[in-house]
Amino acid sequence: MRLTRYAASVVSLGAVLAACRPVPGPAPLPTPLPSPTPELVRVEPPPVTDDLARESLLEAIDRNLKAAGRIGAPGCPGSVLAQALAALRDAVVRPETDLAQYVLDRFEFRRSTGREGGALFTGYYEPVLAARRKSEGGFVYPLYRRPDDLIEIQLGDFDAEWSGVTIWGRVAGGKLAPYYTRREIDREGALAGRGLEIAWLDDPIARYFLQVQGSGVLRWGDGSLAHVGFAGSNGKPYTSIGRLLAEEGALGAQRATAPGIQAYLRAHPERRDEVIFQNERYVFFGEVVDGPVGRLGVKLTEGRSIAIDTSLYPLGWLAYVDTRAPVVDSSGATTGYRPLRRFVLTQDTGAAITGPGRVDVFFGTGERSGLEAGSMSERGELYLLTPVECRG
Hints:
Blueprint: H1 13-19, E1 41-43, H2 54-65, H3 78-92, H4 99-106, E2 107-111, E3 119-126, E4 128-132, E5 141-144, E6 151-154, E7 166-172, E8 175-178, H5 182-186, E9 197-201, H6 204-213, E10 215-219, E11 225-233, H7 241-247, H8 258-267, H9 272-276, E12 283-288, E13 305-307, E14 318-328, E15 334-348, E16 358-365, H10 367-374, E17 377-387
Parallel strand pairs: 3-16, 4-10, 13-15
Antiparallel strand pairs: 1-2, 2-17, 3-17, 4-9, 5-9, 6-7, 7-8, 10-11, 11-12, 13-16, 14-15, 14-17
Helix pairs in contact: 2-3, 3-4
């Protein structure tokens, strides 16, 4: 999902190539990272503990092993990593195992940024939204599947220099053009009448945040449920509307949390579209059998799955995080903090998760998870754990 800005006018592929060199995305709230470096730096392990039940770690490892053919990194083949994870799984199921000591003996710790306090942790979740299969009553806001004219281009297929860079567009007048913006889709109806609607929602703000999360659960009128997941985007870069609101002083002294942003938009309906349209990125969905599914292609595990920048860090890796999480009340207000120190797996990525030391923790499904995830913005440490067999 690593996306770059390119020319807004209709351009040829050659022009797109010239305009698409990757640039870093906006620094996450509340403050930019302190001059981080992308290298993974080998360090002495920190004090290790794990604040979640072992069953959730076992679940996450089992799901990771289903994608064994898609894990690994330079210097550590996927087969070696899979063997190390399988051995860790065997240790997890034995209650007598000192899990912390087991990991310390068999993995090297590599800090994500090479400096204290270098990582910034945010959270994401899977919302549950009321939906209808056709437009009726107040359900007038469409959720679109991936359009047939949306073209995904891996630039590395044309030039190795662009390896890992993906652009999205459409053909117009025999040339590649940028795909429609959020305003063109939602205000001007660029996709209307094409039969692309998966569902109709009754809340445009909830629809927007569903796109930010990338997956969700739809509750139909009869009470049945359907999972939807990311199926593509229009290729525009992600713009944080929270950052924009904070910079203009609209949120006052509040932090730019998801609950705070939503509250502002609901209190100022006359500004809703103006604010939302500033994020031109638009996400398309497809129904999935079970979700949410991360970039690794496996179902995410609450509290154990994290999203990272895959241009810097590998997917399917065992990691250790050391930070804290907010304790929130029913309104989303932070009432305190609790430690968040545990083993996790790098199973996802996201348009807003760019740069070294950026981590998005999956908090789970539903409203409560959303309040916790939306309030999460904390400093801490991310360590990627390398099997000793890959010591280099």
